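Researcher: I'd like a structural prediction for the single chain below. Treat it as a standalone chain; there are no partners to consider.
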Amino acid sequence: MLSLPSGPRAKEEPMAGFLFRLETADGAPAEPPSLSSVVRNWRSGDTIPLGRKMLRVLGVRNDDEDEPPVLVVEDVADLERLTK
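Model: Treating it as a single chain, here is the predicted structure.
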């Protein structure tokens, strides 16, 4: 029986996913400025967990077919600080 060798690969294969640009409501790049995700259909109100940070999707734009779509987001932690 033949099998593939085990161990590290010579070249890492890219993870399949969808690329999005992230912007704040005023059009500035969000932090982080982009997101690669297996989720393709983000909608307003969805939340994106990023470790200790959480972003809420305010809207989705796809202005240019040659560029990744834009998720307009807000930092949920920023909102919590403002309401305290």
